[in-house]
């Protein structure tokens, strides 16, 4: 398995669903300009997409006291940017079928990790910068997509067990991926988003998350720093553990942000996460 074979796999993926393509067109001028009635109508035209979004939103992790029964309600509660993330999330799940056990985590648990990353992004960073939080929350939900591509390729190889065991025992997962794949799963997420013509800035952020590609932009630097905090605290090996939260806090101090705010948010989410596991 090589970097080239991983990219070839991505290039062979079919287009996104018709409903997803229509949603992309709606968002072409930014989430602020999306016509909500059209968005709701497009999503509701896809019964499976509608069911998946409502199922996720009604998960215990979000803690709503009453059941959300319509896409219109969902858009009102979460906003157009979050809904965009959910549409893309399920589009990727539909097109990239993979067993994430090569990363030592079941597909169901992998999906929970993605949801918690997104929830942490919104609940933590919205208290610092609401606009940036709204923009990055969908990306936090789908930034692990590259691991699905890796899982597909590793599953077809002769060293699935070796890769899985090595990943489990390594000290730095990104370095481990780079050593064995010639890239990281986050960079592959960027290539995947590029293949499907998703937000160009999302592509740049993901490609710069593990590599500095000579992009001199304070905004880009900030975005990668924020995502780095989230993926450090919540990932396929650790979900808001004491160790992972402490690591994230070190990054937050370097950003000159409030550590206590982050810890308080993380603990609140962790309580809901534990409840979710028991269901």
Report the order of strands and helices.
HHHHHHHHHHHHHHH
The top level CATH class name: Mainly Alpha
How many extended strands? 0
Instruction: State the share of residues found in helices, binned by percent.
Output: 55-70%
Considering the protein shown, what is the CATH homologous superfamily? Hypothetical protein af1432
Distance between the termini: 38 Å
Uncertain segments are: none
Strand percentage: under 5%
CATH topology: Hypothetical protein af1432
Q: Describe the main β-sheet briefly.
A: none
**Which second-level CATH architecture applies?**
Orthogonal Bundle
Task: Name the overall outline.
Answer: globular
Kindly give the count of domains: 1
**What structural class do you assign from the helix and strand content?**
mainly alpha
Mean pLDDT, as a whole number? 89
Number of helices: 15
Rg over CA atoms? 18 Å
Describe the structure.
The protein is mainly α. It has a single domain (3-278), classed as Hypothetical protein af1432, CATH 1.10.3210.10. 70% of the residues lie in helices and 0% in strands. The protein is built from 15 helices and no strands. It has helices spanning 3-11, 18-26, 36-44, 47-57, 71-95, 107-125, 130-142, 146-155, 160-169, 173-181, 185-195, 200-209, 218-233, 242-254, 259-278. The protein is globular, with a radius of gyration of 18 Å.
List keywords for this structure.
single chain; 279 residues; mainly alpha; Hypothetical protein af1432; 15 helices; 70% helix; 0% strand
